[in-house]
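We modelled the chain as a single entity of 152 amino acids. Its sequence is:
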Amino acid sequence: MQRYFQRFVILKAPPGIYCNIDSFKRRTIYGKWYCEAQLQATLKTLLISYILTGILLVVLAFALYKLRLKEGQVNLMVYAVYLLTCLCGGFLAGKRIRQRRFFWGLLSGLLYFLVLFAVSWAMNMGSAIDMERSVTVMGICALGGTIGGMLS
């Protein structure tokens, strides 16, 4: 029984993703073991997604300043920014990993949401969480990442 569990190890992978060393030794991406390459690709696409989010939110803030948009329009544009950045993140994750692209796109979108949710919660510790908006944003992020992964 112990020999069976020795064949499965976690190689710097997110929780729940296991690599069978025997079958993955020969499979490499960019000269690295498969799971390590998956993790690095996911983190890089997450970083690129947040850089793109920052750029698009600065453009949106400038548009808000110049065009004097209403709150409903701003909320819609923020949702569009989330969708676009998760779409790009899922696309890049699918391009880099090249297998189960929709899954890695979905994971990219969900990780984007989790970081966004954690930072938002940490910034507003005392206030209540708007669950309806959180579920909507999670759905938008997951959908964008999945579509991006499928388009890659």
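As a brief sanity check on the tokenised model: Strands lie at 8-9, 19-20, 28-29, 32-33. Residues 1-15, 20-26 have pLDDT under 50 and may be disordered.
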